[in-house]
Amino acid sequence: MSQVSVRCLDLTKAFGAIMAVDQLDLMVEQGQVLALLGPSGCGKTTALRLIAGFEIPDAGTVEIGGQIVAGSGVLIAPQRRKVGMVFQEYALFPHLKVADNVAYGLPRGNGRADRVKEVMALAGLDGLGDRMPHQLSGGQQQRVALARALAPEPEVLLLDEPFSNLDAVLRTQVRQETKDILKASGATAIFVTHSREEAMVMGDVVGIMNHGRWEQVDTPQRIFHHPATRFVARFMGIADFLPAQLSNGALHTELGSTPLPEGLTDENQIAMMVRPDDVVIRPTQTGEGVIIERTFQGAFYLYQVSLPSGNVIHSMSRHTEEHAVGARVDVSLNGGHPPICFVGEHAFLDDTNGES
Amino acid sequence: MQSKEIIKPIVGIFRGLGARNIRPPAFVWIPAILAVGGMILPLAYLVLRTMGVGTEVWDLLFRSRTLDILIRSALLVVAVTGASVAIAVPLAWLTVRTDLPFRGLWAVITVLPLVIPSYVGGFLVVVALGPKGVLQGWLAPLGVDRLPEIFGFPGAMLTLTLLSYPYVLLPARVALGRMDPSLEETSRSLGKGPWSTFRHITFPLLRPAIAAGALLVALYTLSDFGAVSLLHYETFTWAIYIQYGYFARDLAAALSLVLVALALGILILETRTRGRSQYHRSTTGVVRPPAKFRLGRWRWPALALCTTVVLISLVMPVAVLVYWVLRGISAGEPMLLLWSHARNSLYVSGLAAVVAVVAALPTATLTVRYPSQISGLLERISYIGFALPGIVVALALVFFGIRYATPLYQTLGLLIFAYAVLFLPTAVGAARTSLLQVNPMIEDAARSLGKTPWQVFATITFPLVRPGVLAGAAMVFLLAMKELPATLILSPIGFKTLATSIWGATEDGFFAQAAAPALLLILASSIPMALLVLRGDRKV
User: Fold this and answer.
1) Which pLDDT belongs to residue A58?
2) How far is CA B316 from CA A131, B129, B312, B441, in A?
3) Which alpha helices (DSSP H) does B275-389 contain, by range?
4) Which of B7, B19, B445 lies at the smallest CB-CB distance from A59?
5) Which of A22, A58, A159 to mutate to test the interface with B (most CBs of B within 10 A)?
6) Measured between CB atoms, which of B7, B441, B442 is closest to A73?
7) Contact residues on chain A for B14, CB-CB shorter than 8 A
8) I need a labelling partner for A141 at 20 to 30 A (CA). Which of A172, A182, A355, B22 fits?
9) Which residues of chain A have pLDDT under 70?
10) How far B273 CA sits from the closest chain A CA (Å)?
11) Which pLDDT does position B496 carry in this prediction?
12) Residue in A with minimal Cα distance to B14
């Protein structure tokens, strides 16, 4: 069993009447990357700053490397927490050369220069040591910030929206580089993002936050395919919820019936989650659905189809299948996987097909 | 659950001290409180002392035509402020946003009148425009034997306007240079002409900067002592000085408090009307420089305006001074005394700059980095310093020194302290501005790399704010060089600076003798001033 690097229990922080972080429990194992994902204002950055020591928790504890650093009457200053932080704007020291930026957190003495060289090589910054920060490209600045944070071998690396200042093309590239650097150095990391794609690519574990609480903490695969709440389902992409009735051991929706997931016995407020790629539309004169909107998305068209009940459902079709707004269509489901059912706001998790 | 109860009271202590909920380190808050406390000491003492006099104070004030003085002071403030804005805004626009020929040159020299002290400006106005003055001499062959009266309101207003309009010009230029050009372009694309755009977009966006400058002009006018004395226009400062000279100390103290109240009133009025617009920038990242307006034929009237202002406010005074100095040298007048006066000026002004900056840095750090009720209060108190006229601080310190600090009385220490009180707000302002430009994330990054707050300050924050702090020191140096009333009242007997020697000569009517120290003072002040202007323009 691997060792726990960061553990937060019951972590709470309010700003005035707003609960930024609300009784949050969090655990990261050594070498693991946790992606904190959520909409702006969900408390993810505050959680990160609480761990770094730039905010003081109202309640709860923060433990880094087995030592309590905040809570239970203890409050360790940020500089003694062994955390490395990478900021959104990189926060490079503008008056220091690249090499001096990287060396800043290292103790004086032998080995300092060696370590700087080593980390700079790891981050692909060879030959840039004498440059000033403003002479670097955005991607290079990001790698300097990463190298600087990694140099003192922190217990955990904290990254606050590290890619949001880069343009779309560069972002994909830098994201991959960062992931490689993190894995090569074996670093433990928590990083905050509002991009679901980033969280999927970077995170070994993804935690989705809303209003200062977890919605779900899970592998990227399960977050996407088995969202625990409607919030997660919507956050990870377009999702429609079709009301479903339970009878005769099956679920009946407007678009057909499916077998009942094992153990589901509630009768009220059942809904089936449908992603646009599960919905197939076929134009016919007698179709019960009507296309009310069409959005061109390059390789696909995204249609909004109004059903007889008044519900609107999204459907994704290849760009070759072009239908006019107002056209009547037959709507059917072709998920290729068991449906995800929700009771109220929460998913009914069928443990038999889960991974853990 | 149990841990929560233990933590709550501990965290409660921190909470009062900041939105970031981090307690300021001792090396920040202790000096900050000492500095601001020291700054408010003279005023507090003056209030206590005047209250000690009892209800007689009211009788004194009523008997001594205070209302006349009040009206005269207010009239002068309004006139000088209005005229300064009227001169400065066109100059700012011409030197920043048009293709005016020799823009860089105009940018520097239109600001330079700031280095001419008001007592020098005052006596030059008397010499030039007074009875039997230069102008009347020129006009005499034409049969003009009398000019309109220059003493009183017209002379005081003219002098103070010509010397203080740069206080509006400087912030207006900075604001114009930093303005997001896309705002004006948006207005033009929505069908508004250049004039309408200026009126509805540019000018409203400039208003906070103009208001900030106008505030400085108003306070400068209200606390001016030299010009109003030389031109015999009885405002508060002159009345206070006269009463002090008659040993009517209670009345002097009471008048001082009325003056401070008036200054505070102006300060509060400006803060109220300003709102918060000053601190908001509409764009982040790289700002495009705004497009230059092509003057075309209009460049001739524009050049004429700049030339006139510079001729009257800078060239004429300096030329007159140079003429007198040359005449003095050719007449074999001794210059020896001058050097010791100059040395004294440099010495006390240098010390004042160091003391003010050292006191300002912790204060600024506390108010910028650790916002809380306490630091907000300190900030407001340090701001009050802008409203303290030199003569008031000097009087308060004389009273205080005689009563409680006899060993300090008549020492340079008390004079330096007075300078520090008077110029701390300037130094704090400069330090605040530079600190606001340093992203706190950079400091957080340094903290997370294992450095203590003091190490972070020494290796990261201070190197980054150094240029701004040095600019603040230069400004304090400049102000201390020019300062007259506090220097006059607090200098130890026999200690003469350039300012007091100029004053001594002009008071006795020996204008020619005042020329050499005045010229030296202007030269010595011009160097830091020019550096400040050039530095400011680089930022624009």
Assistant:
1) 93
2) 50, 12, 5, 51
3) 299-310, 316-330, 336-369, 373-384
4) B7
5) A58
6) B7
7) 56
8) B22
9) 1-2, 266, 349-356
10) 28
11) 92
12) A56
Report strand pairing: A189-193 vs A156-160: parallel
**Is any Cβ of chain A less than 8 angstroms from the Cβ of B21?**
yes
SS3 A136: coil
Radius of gyration of chain A measured on its C-alpha atoms: 24
Residue (of A131, A216, A203) closest to A162 by Cα position: A203
Residue A315, strand partner residues: A303
Q: CB B482: neighbour CB atoms within 10 A?
A: 24
Q: Count the neighbouring beta carbons within 10 Å of the beta carbon of residue B11.
A: 17
> What are the CA-CA distances from residue B298 to residues A35, B94, B101 (Å)?
62, 11, 11
Distance from CA of B115 to the nearest CA of A (A): 33
* Closest CA relative to residue A87, chosen from A132, A50, A45: A45
Q: Token match 């969900």: residue?
A: A42
Higher-pLDDT residue of B334 and B506 is B506
**Which of B8, B14, B444 lies nearest to residue A85, judging by beta carbons?**
B444
Sign of CA dihedral B523, B529, B534, B535: positive
pLDDT at B434: 85
- Over the stretch B459-510, which tens digit does the pLDDT of each residue have? 999 999 988 888 889 889 989 999 999 999 999 988 999 999 999 888 777 7
* Cβ <8 Å between A54 and B444: yes
Among chain B residues, the shortest Cα distance to A12 is held by: B4
Model's pTM, two decimal places? 0.77
From chain A, the residues in CB contact with B441 under 8 A are: 87-89, 91
Exposed, middle or buried: residue B338 (CB in 10 Å: 0-12, 13-18, 19+)?
Answer: middle
pLDDT for position B538: 53
ipTM for this prediction: 0.74
Residue B184, H or E segment: helix B181-189
Which residue's entry shows tokens 């990287």? A102
Q: Which two tokens stand for residue A53?
A: 């020591």
Q: Does any CB of chain A come closer than 8 Å to the CB of residue B78?
A: no
Distance from A130 to chain B by nearest Cα, in Å? 18
Half-sphere exposure of A111 (CA within 13 A, CB side): 5
Which residues, in sequence order, are CB contacts of A3 under 8 Å at separation 6+? Answer: A29, A30, A66
Q: What is the CA radius of gyration of chain B?
A: 25
Q: At what angle do helices B462-482 and B412-437 cross, to 10 degrees?
A: 140
Q: CB-based contact (8 Å) between B466 and chain A?
A: no
Q: Of A55, A72, A87, which has the smallest distance from its Cβ to B21's Cβ? A: A55
C-alpha pair distances (Å), B227 with each of B120, B162, B389: 8, 12, 14
Nearest to B365 by CA among B468, B478, B479: B468
